[in-house]
Amino acid sequence: MKFPKEFLWGSDIAASQCEGGWNLDGKTPIASDYGTVGSQSGMRMKTYVDDNGNQGLYPFFATLPSNYHYDMHDNYYYINHNAVDFYHRYKEDIALFGEMGLKTLNLSISWARIFPKGYENGVNKKGVEFYYNVLKECKKYDIEPLVTLHKYDIPVYLEEKFGGWSNRQMIEEFYQFAKVCFKEYKDLVRYWVTFNEINSLAIPSFLPYDLPREVSQNNFSQLHYQLVASAKVVKLAHDINSLNQVGCMFSSLAYYPLTCDPKDVLISQETFRNMCYYTTDVQVRGQYPYYAQNIWNKLGITLDIKQQDERDLLDGKVDFIAFSYYMSNCITVHKVDEDMAKGNLSIGNRNPYLQYSEWDWAMDPDGLKYVLHELYGRYQMPLLIIENGLGATDVLTNDYKIHDVYRIDYLRQHINSMKQAITEGVNVIGYTTWSAIDLVSASSGQITKRYGFIYVDMDDEGNGTFNRYKKDSFYWYKKVIESNGEDLS
Predict the structure, then answer these.
(1) What backbone phi and psi angles, to 5 degrees, belong to 323?
(2) At 325, which helix (H) or strand (E)?
(3) Ranges of the chain whose pLDDT falls below 50
(4) Considering only CA atoms, which of 94, 111, 121 is closest in space to residue 10?
(5) Which secondary-structure segment (H or E) carries 130?
(6) 464 pairs with which residues across the strands?
(7) Which of 93, 185, 424, 464 is 20 to 30 A from 354, alpha carbon to alpha carbon?
(8) Per the record, what is one GO cellular component (predicted)?
C-alpha cells in the first residue's frame, strides 16, 4: 500500500526555539529567555533572583517557587535571545522549506508576541502582523501551515501575575489568545494543535524518584486547567470556522516490559496509560478516564473540577491525535545494575536490542509502529506524527557540506515503520520531522544538538554567521516527498 495522495509530508519549527528577537516589536520575555545552555551531561537551568536579592539557578522545566523571580545574570549567555534568527530570516528559511517540497510546516505562535501583557492590555499588532507575513510566505510556496498555539511560550508577565497555569484565570487568557489567532489567520490556517506535549506535566510524577506530593498536586492542577482551556478553544475554533481541524498533541514513547515477569508487563502497561492515555482520553472522549481517580488517590492530589469544566471537556473533543515520537523505554519493577538511559522527559532501563544516540535516546523505529497501532486501536481517529527526528553533532566541511547519513538512516527506518502501520490499516494523515532547520533544543538548550535538514552556522556560545547550508538529508527528504514516500534510498 502506498502513502495517501494527500499525505502531509512536513517538518517542524517552534517560535521560542528558532525566532530570536526576544524583546523586539513589543514582545515580552518568556521562560526560555532565561534558560542557560546545557550539555550532554549537564542539565539546562534557568536563572532567578529571590526576594532577598540572591541570584541562583533552578531546573529549567520546574516551576519557580513564589519567592523566586526570573532574572538575567551577567555571566550567562542566553541562547534563545537570538536562537537561529528566524525572526529576521523567515523569508529565506521558508524559501528553503519550499525548495525541499514540504507539504506542511508545523510552527508555533508566540503568545508573548500577541498578548505581551495579557489580553486586558491589548493585542500587539506588530506580533499579529509578523505571523500573518510568515503564514502568507508559507502559502506562497504551497506549504500548508499547521499551527501549534502553546509551545513553551507563556509570557513571564502572566507567570508572575497569576502564577502561570496554577491559576484558573489562565484558561481565559489562553482563550482570548486563541480567539485572536483563529480570527486573524482564519483564511490561512486549517490545521491547529492546542498544546504541545500536554502530558509533559504529568510525566514527572511517574518517574522513578520521589517527587513531593505538592509538586504533583501543582502539576496536575495546571494540567487540568490546560485540558479545560484546550477543550474550550477546540469548540471556539469550530465555531469561528467549521473547516478548522483541531488536534491534541502529546509526547509518546513506546513502553516495553524489561522482562517477561507479569509484574513488568503490568507496570509497562500502567506507565503508558498514566503518561500518555491520561490526557488523550480526556481530549478525545471528553471526560476523565476510569483510572484517573486511582492516579489522584495514589499521588494524594485533589483537582478543582467544576461542573462547567466537565461540560467544556465534553463539548471540546479534538478532530485528530498528534504525537511526538523519538524513542522507547524499558520498564521494570526489579532493580538492575545497568546505567539508566536518560532521555528528554524519560528515565528508563537500557534495551540491549537497541542502539542509542549521542544523547542516550533509544533509536527504535519499530516502537513507532507499535505506538501507531496502540493509538489507532484505542481511538480509531486520524493520527498525525509531529516531531520525529535525531539530535546529533553535525560537522560542516571546508566546502560547506554536511554528510548526515546517520539522520537519513534514522528517518528512513521510522518512515518505513510508519508505512508498515499504514499498510496494516492505521489512518496516518501526516508526518513532520523535528526539525526543518537547526534550532535551540528545548531540553538541553543547545544549537549544537542539531536536528534540522538545514545547518545554521551558530554555536552554543553565540559565535557564527547564521548562514544556512543544506545538509545531505535536505536533498534526501526532498526526494522522499517528491515520490510520496516511495523512494527512501
Answers:
(1) -155, 155
(2) strand 320-331
(3) none
(4) 94
(5) helix 125-140
(6) 458
(7) 424
(8) cytosol
Residue 193 C-alpha cell reads as: 494543535
> Can you read off the three cell numbers belonging to residue 435?
526539525
Residue 346: the pLDDT is 61
Report the side by side order of strands in the sheet with 55-59. Answer: 55-59, 45-50, 68-70
Q: Give the per-residue pLDDT at 344.
A: 56
Whether the CB-CB separation of 216 and 301 falls below 8 Å is answered with yes
Number of H helices, E strands in the chain: 14, 17
| CATH number listed for the domain at residues 8-31+78-482 | 3.20.20.80
Between strands 340-342 and 347-349, the pairing is antiparallel
Q: At what angle do helices 405-423 and 472-482 cross, to 10 degrees?
A: 20
Separation of CA 389 from chain center: 12
Distance CA 49, CA 57 (A): 9
DSSP-assigned letters across all residues of 335-375:
--SSPEEE-SS-EEE--TTSEE-TT--EE-HHHHHHHHHHH
In angstroms, the CA 305 to CA 182 distance is: 27
Say if residues 45 and 68 touch (Cβ distance below 8 Å): no
Torsion angle of the four alpha carbons 368, 369, 371, 377, in this order, in degrees rounded to the nearest 10: 160
Catalytic residue positions, numbered: 387
Cα diameter, the chain: 65
What is the structure's pLDDT at 342? 63
pLDDT attached to residue 325: 98
Q: Are 142 and 46 in contact (CB under 8 A)?
A: no
Which pLDDT tens digit goes with each residue over 80-110?
999 999 999 999 999 999 999 999 999 999 9
User: Is residue 442 within 8 Å of 152, Cβ to Cβ?
Assistant: yes
H runs (alpha helix) in 55-124: 86-100, 111-114
- pTM greater than 0.70: yes
Q: Taking Cα atoms as reference points, which of 229, 142, 126, 144 lies closest to residue 184?
A: 126
Could you tell me which of 8, 27, 199, 10 has the C-alpha nearest to residue 109? 27
d(CA 142, CA 193): 20
Q: Could you give the CA distance from residue 388 to residue 397 in angstroms, rounded to a whole number?
A: 26
Domain ranges in the chain are 8-31+78-482
Provide long-range contacts, Cβ within 8 A and 24+ apart, for 311-314: 312/228, 312/231, 312/232, 312/235, 313/227, 313/228, 313/231, 313/282, 313/286, 313/287, 313/288, 314/231, 314/286, 314/287
Given a contact cutoff of 8 angstroms between Cβ atoms, the answer to whether 288 and 281 are in contact is yes
> What does the alpha-carbon distance between residue 230 and residue 225 come to, in Å, rounded to a whole number?
8
